[in-house]
Amino acid sequence: MQTGINYSDKIPNNVNLSEDKTLQRALEHWQPNYLSWWNDMGPEGAMQHDVYLRTAVSVDPGGWAQFGHVKMPDYRWGIFMNPKEEGRTIGFGEHKGEAAWQDVPGEHRANLRRIIVTQGDTEPASVEQQRHLGLTAPSMYDLRNLFQINVEEGRHLWAMVYLLHKHFGRDGREEADALLGRNSGDADNPRILGAFNEKTPDWLAFFMFTYFTDRDGKFQLCALAESAFDPLARTTKFMLTEEAHHMFVGESGISRVVARTAAVMNELKTDDPAKIRAAGVIDLETVQRYLNFHYSVTIDLFGADESSNAAIFYNSGLKGRFEETKRADDHQLQGQTYGVLAVQNDTLVERQVPMLNGLNEVLRDDYIKDSVGGVGRWNKVLEKAGISFRLSVPHKAFNRKIGMLAGVKISPDGRVLSEVEFAANEKHWLPSAEDRAFVASLMHRVVEPGKFANWIAPPVMGINRQLVDFDYVRFN
Ligand SMILES: [Fe+2]
Ligand SMILES: [Fe+2]
Q: Which of 431, 445, 452, 436 has its CA nearest to residue 475?
């Protein structure tokens, strides 16, 4: 298995694409449709810019990234997989210990296709959600990071489309076309999952999205990286290396917002949101409300708390748990139970369900543990600045739209409320139209090298050891 990438093919790849002419032709037929989707739905007004982007040149750890200025439509999107592990066996479920599958078993075809399509659909969706953000970038550095994320989400779509074309015949080709047909927020033909039809209207939303929602991506990809279907496992492992940068952009972005607000609070010696806003920075209460929104919408992505599909996916080896192979249990989970939340007599109670049926909740809880870490690091920024305000994630039952908790009104601290009580407090807990209008009022394009919008601090360092005032984007 080669790990170097063949860039002489029309579609860069490390999967020996030229050996399968039919597949190569089918993908070369999809490629112009992808490019026209990119031109229509990708970053607005930015196709002629030369952007300092990284491109994968090999899947070897540490050796895969090459940086240079390229126009985004010329980005070499391709098909990259981690090398095959000889003798890999299935790590969980009823086929545990058997050889991993190199092809799709007939009985799991429909479920695997559904899993791949659902993952694939999120990738172009986020590009669509983010397409206007370049017009209000707070700096050239941030603009470059946005575009990097966008081209990599485009590549993640390629990763899923390759699997559909190679392993699912005609159905797969039709699904690949449909991935370019649905659009985020479209009334008639929306993206599959709720969070991917929400708007990402401003940069605070973008940083929250890349911190929280790209992290959902990480957990889904980690679960798929355990799959018995080896090509899916190898593809998602490589996608994870790209995903890390997306979460970095979110974490460091919020950190810089918080740092800038804290500096202004100290300068003005105030914690009055009105005064802080008047100084042109985002008050911490608004940051908290955005956090509440993005966190709750994102944890819904893990699906219903109790799910027979989750049990089937696990039992049959399609989708494992986060870090499945590092866990010390029997990897079959028969007869075990897991706690999920329900409302009883106006209080939240934990109910035990068969663990196999509770695997969405298991993954959600692993996600929650991971996402709390960054919130703690944002609070360190406040602590260091001598500000007493602390950010926190809301209760996991807050603002849920999926599963047992859908429709129940819960406060961020986990109390069951009446509709009336919730409505009376909603503006303190979730971004109001007025909050969003205020944040939008700060969004002006700042793109001179080394300059930053007033509401955000500069980063500690540049990209790929370049200086912060490097010309990351050359405008044409
Ligand atoms: Fe992605
Ligand atoms: Fe991502």
A: 445
